[in-house]
Amino acid sequence: MSRSQQWYSGDSRNAYIHRAWMRRGLPRDAFDGRPHIAIANTASDLTPCNAHLTEVAKSVSDGVWAAGGVPLHLPVVSLGETLLRPTAMLFRNLAAMATEEMLRGNPIDGVVLLGGCDKTIPALLMAASSVDLPALVVPGGPMLTGHFRGQPLGCGTDVWRLSEEVRAGTLSQEEFVASESSMIRSRGHCNTMGTASTMAVVTEALGMTIPGLAGTPAPDSGLLEMAHRSGRLAVSLVAEDRRPSTVMTRAAFLNAIVALAAVGGSTNAVVHLLAIAGRLGVDLTLADFDRTGSGVPLLVDLQPAGKHLMDDLHRAGGLLAVLREVADLLSADAITVTGEPLTAYLSDARIHDETVIRPRSAPLRSSAGIAVLRGNLAPNGAVIKPAAATQSLLTHRGRAVVFDSIEHLHATIDTVDADEDSVLVLRGCGPKGYPGMPEVGNFPLPASVLAKGVRDMVRISDARMSGTAYGTVVLHVAPEAAAGGPLGRVRTGDPIVLDVPNRTLMVDVPGLESRPVAPAAVEAYAAPTRGWQRLYVDHVLQADRGVDLDFLTGAHGAAPTRESH
Q: In terms of Cα–Cα distance, which of 419, 531, 418, 550 is closest to 483?
């Protein structure tokens, strides 16, 4: 008996209720044992990058019908990066928890997951991992490139760049605002290698999409074709009982880390992959990102680490062309949702534009994966993206200038005593301290430094940063200040030593561990008293463990709970 038949089969009163209330256009034979496939859709007008997913869902639905299944549209919590306050990351676990319960509690045999904007694909994969029903992902795809006065605009990346030029006095406010109408050209998520594009890439490398799908632009008709194929494949997944736990093995996660490094992907992928692995019970740690990814060459010349954009990557050959160049670093044991290994799809892949995808023999950088730092400032680790940093700053010693909250920073950044050699330290922005770990790690530089023509400084925080951002930015410091981490003990004037080649982050102050937490850091933190934020703060794990809730780790299965009647 299929899972959905546990609701629909037989002549009992409850089976009658289940069938009758679903007979609103469904034929009688929809309940004769056909696979019932949920289409978990994060489309929302308030998540503008995902608004087109309703059209994509129609193509998935057609594919499910064509393969003999029954498609069932399931709206789920949608998280928009640009609008949602205080930060979409605060609600990733809520979206995952709600989706998990809807998948477990409803009569479905498999699910197609539709996501795009940054937190939606991670939340969907976390949910699917916990339930472990047959599942696959259809990423919504990046937008096309917009242009302003003849120049291409990188969504997100150029917002950060242009806003700093306004503060430096090299771009007028009027010109900055005029570029707004050109930034977003079409449907789809950010066209840089930000978190949305990164998560699509690593999802394909994990094996959870049809190979060749990640990075297909949202307006491209190929997306609808692949959505249709995904609907058909979902029915096969049920028949073959191929589940997320059989696809997303440790080998698959290591493949995803290789892909992350080769494309110059977002640091946010670290916390998301750790959280997904935690749901599956896969042994993945922060150290794996450095051990597996640090020596991988950067092959994709894409903003923010390079100059091109996502539609360029698509026409140049896409992810499979990138992975073909590093095929020797990939595990052939890791399968995809098709049942075939990821490596089986690489032989026919080709680079069509070597200015966008570099060959292995001529990489953009020879090794540029996520670097994991440790030391007395980050005992449990911190991360930096060397590909997006100023190379001369990767080894640096400077005087700390400390901000106790993001509000403190915004109020004082242009009046602090700092020069280009200073190390800017922001605390109170971790999972507990904010709460939610916002994307504020790429905070602005002091106006006095910008006026000198300087555009980067070493910045350290317990926050995250947008995948579209750049700079010598140390992130995810763990434990965070609000959890008692040493970041709360740093004082303005302390010497800080960053040594990325040797993977260390130190405060050159003897006995730092015995120094009391700065009173201002304590005063800046106010624990929530109710609702989701209270639950979140009480149970959230630190960045080195994926920022999931402690009671959601580990798979929980798909067994339906008690009858509702």
A: 550
36-41: strand order across its sheet: 70-75, 36-41, 110-115, 135-139
Mean pLDDT on 277-285: 97
Predicted confidence (pLDDT) at residue 560 exceeds the cutoff of 80: no
| Residue 43 identity | A
Tokens of 277: 């692995």
* Closest by CA position to 261, among listed 291, 285, 216: 291
The average pLDDT across 339-349 equals 97
Query: Model's pTM, two decimal places?
Result: 0.96
DSSP 54: H
Which run of H or of E encompasses 221? helix 221-240
In this predicted structure, the answer to whether residue 561 has a pLDDT above a threshold of 90 is no
In contact, 60 and 71? CB cutoff 8 Å: yes
State pLDDT tens for residues 128-147: 999 999 999 999 999 999 99
As a whole number, mean pLDDT of residues 418-444 equals: 96
Bridge partners for 153 per DSSP: 146
Alpha-carbon distance 202 to 47, whole Å? 21
In angstroms, how far is the first alpha carbon of the chain from the final one?
Answer: 21
What residues pair up with 341 in beta bridges, in sequence order?
Answer: 335
The CA distance from 54 to 44, in Å, is 9
* Residue 562 pLDDT: 82
Instruction: Note the Cα 456 to chain centre separation in Å.
Output: 24
Contact 363, 299 (CB under 8 A): yes
383-410: pLDDT as tens digits: 999 988 999 999 999 999 999 999 999 9
Which domains does the chain carry? 34-145+185-345 (no CATH), 153-178 (no CATH), 371-526 (3.50.30.80)
Q: Can you list the alpha helix ranges (DSSP code H) found in 80-216?
A: 92-105, 120-131, 157-168, 173-178, 180-183, 195-206
